[in-house]
Records
---
Amino acid sequence: MHKIKVRSSEREEMIDISADVEKILGAEDAWDGVCVVFTQHTTCGITVNENADPDVQSDMLGFLKRLIPQDEPHFKHGEKNSDAHIKSSLVGCSVTVPFENGKLLLGRWQAIYMCEFDGPRERKVIVSILGKARTK
Ligand code: ZN
């Protein structure tokens, strides 16, 4: 089990953590299997989506923001971040990604993102690997 520290610089942001996850596979000499990428936080999320056009990320964040405004008058939660809690549950707190030959089997246009909904702050992401090492 490994932890990645991810530092966000805006309230809402999608940060590509694919390279950090793949680095762990390399360090562990993990060759074939699956890895679970999970966060223990309640106001961010983990997802897999397009890494080619940055407009996809801004459209996703923009749509969620319009769907769930931070200043929704019916929210009661005193921290004033109920929008972030809801977005976190909609996006989910983990993804499972298979890997082969030590490389994530992401599609050509896919990346693993930590979705910040209540930044800026430092987040911890857990990477748990289930698989076998390279046979020598
Ligand atoms: Zn809260």
Note: The mean pLDDT is 97.
---
Amino acid sequence: MTPMIMDHPLIQHKVSLLRDKNTGTKDFRELVSEIAMLMCYEATRDLPLKEVEIETPLSVARTKIVSGKKLAVIAVLRAGLGMVDGVLKMVPAAKVGHVGVYRDPETLLPVPYYCKLPVDITEREALVVDPMLATGGSAAAVIKTLQDNGVKSIKFVCILAAPQGLAHLSEAYPDLPIYCAQEDERLNEHGYIMPGLGDAGDRLFGTK
Ligand code: PRP
Ligand code: URA
């Protein structure tokens, strides 16, 4: 499935501010949350609807509400945590799961270390959130973890992606819908997205 690059002007604008090295932790956090909210709006465009009758103060309206599977937001620790609030603003009833994976700085390979999912995860559609898709190793490990736990319906939402990460993830999971705000040029020799925004986790949590 071809990754969907979300080029909405508001998303573009906010990603530009996010990239700026002078954007501090507070603004960085707010921007990640706002971008996640806008991306969630797009990523949920295909949610099924059903017709209902609603009594207005004047009459009865035949109108639509979301039906089908409920959502679970899956945050990839740490940086994915920054996107959870934004998604929950759009879908307040969603449950939240956490999958911990860090990237070994030498090998750049993913090291899974934590997984806590909603008990009814197999009945939910999972929206995996992580701002950065670099080599794609972490995302692929998370998708595998979800599939191993019986999750059938999964979407992946990131803010910046490197071409290598998009290729890796879509080759490993050809049916996985991938949503991304911007595709960058390349990875540097340390596996960082270029021009990128730096280390998303450190900028979100002020750890460097
Ligand atoms: C970052 C980011 C992704 C991963 C992407 O996490 O949030 O999870 O790197 O890299 P990849 O596509 O090459 O696997 P990091 O490993 O820095 O962990 P942290 O958020 O806990 O600092
Ligand atoms: N993780 C990040 O936080 N930033 C990158 O550029 C690559 C991986």
Note: The chain has six helices and twelve strands.
---
Amino acid sequence: MSENGYGLAPDGRPKGNKVWVDGCFDMVHFGHANQIRQSKQYGRYLIVGVHTDKEISLNKGPPVFTETERYAMVRAIRWVDEVVEGAPYTTTVETLDKHDCDFCLHGNDITLDAEGHDTYAEVKNEGRYRETLRTQGVSTSDLVGRMLLLTKTHHERDDHLSDEHSERARTLSTSEDTASPYTRVSRFVATSRTILEFASGRTPKPSDRIVYVCGAFDLFHYGHLRFLEEARKLGDYLICGILGDSTVNSYKGGNHPIMSLHERVLTVLAYRPVDEVVIGAPYMVSDEMIDRFNISLVVVGCEVPHHEHDCPDAFEAAKRRGIYREVESGSNLTTEGIIERIIKNRMEYEVRNRKKAKKEAAALEALERLQGDTTKAIKITAEAAERAEPTRKWV
Ligand code: CTP
Ligand code: C5P
């Protein structure tokens, strides 16, 4: 136990009482959730500040999810104690003091404002900054890139991409030649430990009413969250079946799903309503499945028309047994809707990704001069960002 009574954090230093994390949390993904999970190990109480759409547009380019969606989604991540809406883009000592936080936590990467200033410079200089490990292989820019490209490069190596396609992929940070180590092609590797760290660990009591839902849960969004919250209300324990990549691809076609099975599993596990997931759930919710998991109710959302294909009814067994229920999620957002937002604003997102990659390349050059120490404040000039070439290979 440390002298302040909260014990030691993973870095061996005393934990804080209240600690602060902030960010955009656009297209909230498991990299964000993992940052929040790690941060919770540094304090008794975790406050997450989320920036407004206006601040993000000014400093980084337009977000894909609205602030209302981002606030609700961060609030539902299981390790978050409180969300501060509209947190300033630059983190100051004044903000930490206002919310009674001992220090702030950020992944070990660099965040710059529109002028190229490190947004954590002040708290770094005042010793109120500590770091978590950034999750390799996922970023909002990469997800946006995957959608803009609509290729399968995020699932499998495609050596036959045309030169033009390759170049577009490179600039959008989704190919093997990467723009920066922060926003590169998804090479996320799931381990049993990562899954364990994300899992609720709760087992159902014999008297628990177990609810089962299933789906692709690709590009997890506000509609998914609302659906899971409604489903959870109908019982005591929620199991979420995540359909395998080939199952989803067989009814959606194209390059769907955008996120791989393990990415989708971790994303869903991070949310409070979910107690357990089935990794690569079968399309059919069979009698065997219902008995094996002791399922009392199979719940499906009715906002979104289910899969239009010739497969047999996936929920036939549940309907026959009288345990099938439809719920209103109250949101008409879909994975396709998210993709449409991006396609509609294609130009803006391409510019955003390119600018971000250039700025990151300049930040990395500056970081090399600091021997890679991300806990020190850096500043880059507009000229340095313009000069920087995000073409270097990062392996
Ligand atoms: N983060 C992380 N691992 C990732 C992505 C983000 O640890 N793969 C962390 C960031 O370091 C930061 C927090 O999540 O502490 C919030 O990140 P955000 O402000 O949304 O910005 P980005 O780092 O730019 O996220 P992304 O690259 O996905 O746009
Ligand atoms: O489309 P997907 O398979 O990801 O959907 C998973 C579940 O979430 C389905 O039951 C779907 O009806 C539900 N959903 C919802 N409201 C939304 C989006 C999805 O109820 N806006």
Note: The two ends are 39 Å apart (CA to CA).
